[in-house]
Amino acid sequence: MTTGPLLYVCVRPQQGAAAAEYESFRSAMRVDPGQLAQHDLVRQPLPDDVFDRFRGFVVGGSPFNVADPESTKTDAQRRVEAELGRIAERTAGGDGPAALFTCFGIGVVTRMLGGTVSRAFPEDTGPVTIQLTEAAASDPLFGGLANRFTALTAHKEGTEAAPPGAVLLAVNDACPVQAYRVGDRLYTTQFHPEPTTRAFTERMAVYRDDGYFEAAAYDEIAARVLAASVTEPVRLLRAFAQRFAGTA
Length: 248
Known about the structure:
The protein is α/β, with parallel strands linked by helices and 248 residues long.
């Protein structure tokens, strides 16, 4: 069993947004910097010994989209997807490190393990209602969450069909797959579990002109975000850190 720290894997080209996302994950998991290392996958490939050095991975969001035509993807995006695929393959086996893939990351896992990613299931930027499945009640991470809760989303694609063998853990009306588990150590969420509402509005400002929402509606959407209560998603991250990194 690997005894090192967790690793935050950055897949955002925007370094300011990435730095803020790291802090959101670290704060939500209640760990110090020594317990959560970070690696910029957009600019550097994974180290050869990454699976020996880290006991788990958390993968943040990205403006990349798995469903984009391959001809439109940059070399950096192709490498990011391939490297994340390595993490997904290793953690899906259940005999090594653990991983939690969020937002963009769920698409990488879904495609690599034989599911379907589609542009048919985008969600507007802002708070949404998440509904847990019956299977979630006995899951080590999701079992302690409220059956229905509010989370924050902003994405242009979604999982249409989870990979074969995946355990569906959360759904909602707009996007049929909000979370699933593969084996005992690989988790995915479509929603963002890490940001506070304030941090999310700051991220919105970075991506204001990237087509996630009407730029002129920023103030209106930000007000809706700030009014939301997002207590449950961070509990998921704390449970992940407790189970796979032994945090208090």
